[in-house]
Design brief:
The chain has 7 helices and 6 strands. It is an alpha/beta fold.
Length: about 230
């Protein structure tokens, strides 16, 4: 949709990977719609995933006992977070939609993306107490997880060896995105593209592009326990 701004936070080492292709077609389709698309290519940026005292410039609030959460909160209020964090926060602040594109690592995100979440979505910027879940500071924004897996769709069912895939979405979609106020769109899951045929991969790509054509008309999921775990 013309005038909309999209941030794609992309976590894959290889530009020619299936994740890289999903990112590329998303950029192309959303740009065709007139959206302004920004990509944070975390590996290419050599993004620092570790949350350390180096993230705070200037004096610490309590140099005797280091608490990252407290120091990051105070640094955000004092505008003394490092520039890499501030740059990413600005991208989030300007975005109407944030897409996270990544392969599933151990039922979660790659470490570099988890580090982005740890460092960028700090208290004061993304949430506060009070000011979380439906009152989170990013409540006017949409978020979407676009994930690839190594396992097949059959593995990620309630009767499958890995259990229902929605179980693994709970900490990411609810515990991080919804906690920060994001309105969460249904995830885009591409199961086992590495083992799919060329035609199947083309179908996955086409399905993603087709969905993006109407992404702005989608309703967010009801981000409550029943969506993830049933009644």
């Amino acid at each position: 949709m013309a005038g909309k701004k999209v941030l794609i936070v992309y976590a894959h080492q290889e530009p020619r990977s299936f994740n890289g292709s999903l990112k590329k077609v998303a950029v192309d389709e959303l740009s065709k719609q007139g959206c302004t698309v920004t990509v944070s290519d975390l590996y290419a940026m050599d993004f620092e995933p570790r949350a350390t005292r180096k993230d705070i410039t200037g004096a610490l609030s309590n140099p005797e006992f280091f608490s990252y959460a407290m120091e990051a909160y105070e640094a955000y209020k004092k505008k003394s977070l490092t520039s890499d964090i501030v740059d990413e926060q600005k991208k989030v602040q300007e975005a109407d939609l944030v897409i996270f594109q990544f392969p599933l690592y151990w039922y979660s995100t790659p470490a570099i993306l988890k580090g982005w979440m740890d460092r960028v979505l700090c208290q004061g910027f993304a949430f506060d107490f009070p000011g979380f879940y439906d009152s989170g500071f990013l409540k006017d924004k949409l978020a979407l997880l676009s994930i690839t897996t190594g396992g097949t769709a059959e593995m990620y069912t309630k009767t499958g060896v890995s259990g229902d895939f929605r179980y693994y979405l709970w900490p990411l979609q609810h515990g991080i995105l919804h906690f920060c106020g994001f309105k969460v769109l249904a995830p885009q899951i591409n199961f086992a593209p590495e083992f799919a045929s060329e035609e199947e991969r083309k179908g996955m790509m086409a399905s993603w592009v087709q969905r993006l054509k109407t992404i702005w008309t989608e309703e967010p999921i009801l981000c409550t326990p029943p969506w993830y775990f049933g009644q």
